[in-house]
Amino acid sequence: MKLDVDVLRYLSKDDFRVLTAVEMGMRNHEVVPSELIDRIACLKHGGTYKVLKNLLKHKLLHHDSSKYDGFRLTYLGYDFLAIKTMVNRGIFTGVGRQIGVGKESDIFEVVKEDGTVLAMKLHRLGRVSFRAVKSKRDYLRHRSSYNWLYLSRLAALKEFAFMKALEEHGFPVPNAVDCNRHCVVMSLVRGYPLVQVKQLQNPGTAFETILGLVVRMAEHGLIHCDFNEFNIMIDDDEKITMIDFPQMVSVSHRNAKMYFDRDVECIFKFFKKRFNLSFEENEDESDDSEIDSDEVCWPRFSEIKKVSGFLDKELAASGFTGKDQEDFERFIGEDVQEDSDSDSEGTEDEEYIADSTNESDIKDFDSKCLLKEEGDNTPEHEHGQIEHGVVEE
Ligand code: ADP
Ligand code: MG
């Protein structure tokens, strides 16, 4: 999806106010009735309707009249809300080129006022697993606030919390800068995903470093769960950085051993195939089997010695709670695969909540509305400006 930040240049405070009103409404409506948007936004003289038209034109909203007249945010609309908040907080001033397309994310370069370039990851949950998510309908029905915004926000929050905690324990991860909605800002890793690297000076050293990271993470109570050549970056000095953390689990997870072994196996397989390292993979299921290997020992999950209660303390401090983890795992857990071909065309309508105006939404909007967000002291009528892709207040 193209992120045309130039559109930001044309957006007024009223545009952002209405966009935020739709976001508020989506807490309990998959499609937000126009009348509710108007009540939340509180613009004078029916101004909301004109603004809605403008937002629709720029593809920041999607209009849906299948059941009643209403709107929902598009990913682009959600992107703009997050970007605006980051700019208001002074995290960055401009958005540059796209540097990565993940399974469920888009990654862009962003630039700070002093010229430093950072990486911005926009989570796009639902791009791949929407069908699987829908198949969790039974659970979702009890969650009025469910939608893809919620899941993407949770993915970002989890990624940010884990990155920060890993960084604090000296793991080679990007520096976690900030997180808002579905957006995580981190330092830019100078290097390439390992999958793109055809030759290494010291493949054995890289292999041992990488395997050592899996073990050390497990000692700290964590398993990456997607530890492979796509999520390991390596630079010209063959320095390793790990990325991509939304799927991490605790070593106390019921399938921890399976995840741990899978991560280890990915590394063994990749180094064997790409760099011809000489060792055999562990084909035996049993923990006690002799590994047929020249020098390298297949790390065993049962032999990992935990060093601290890492997860509980530090992750909670970053705002990612056990409840968040539980929610997230329900959707993103290992049974996604098996569910993915059932119930693929379910009707979204079933999940609509009664379309009454919710007073608490309005109150919430007044206290949290974008115009009053931290760091944003711009007078109401001034427009956000972008010059050459740089957002300026
Ligand atoms: P996904 O969860 O969708 O797989 P990733 O976090 O793995 O997303 O990012 C996808 C790609 O974007 C990576 O393979 C990498 O090329 C690039 N990328 C991600 N984070 C950074 C970063 N901090 N610095 C540089 N490139 C990055
Ligand atoms: Mg990835």
UniProtKB/TrEMBL annotation:
Catalytic activity: L-threonyl-[protein] + ATP = O-phospho-L-threonyl-[protein] + ADP + H(+); L-seryl-[protein] + ATP = O-phospho-L-seryl-[protein] + ADP + H(+)
Family of the protein in this entry: Belongs to the protein kinase superfamily. RIO-type Ser/Thr kinase family.
A molecular function (GO) term: metal ion binding
Cofactor(s), by name: Mg(2+)
Assigned keywords, A-Z: ATP-binding, Kinase, Magnesium, Metal-binding, Nucleotide-binding, Serine/threonine-protein kinase, Transferase
Any one of the GO CC terms: preribosome, small subunit precursor
Domain of life according to the entry: Eukaryota
Annotated signal peptide: none
Listed Basic and acidic residues bias regions: 360-393
Organism: Olea europaea subsp. europaea
Record EC number: 2.7.11.1
Entire protein: shown range: 1 to 393 of 471
The name this protein goes by in its record: Serine/threonine-protein kinase RIO2
Biased segments, Acidic residues type: 335-353
Keyword Protein biosynthesis: no
Positions of the RIO kinase domain: 64-284
Any one biological process term the GO annotation gives: maturation of SSU-rRNA
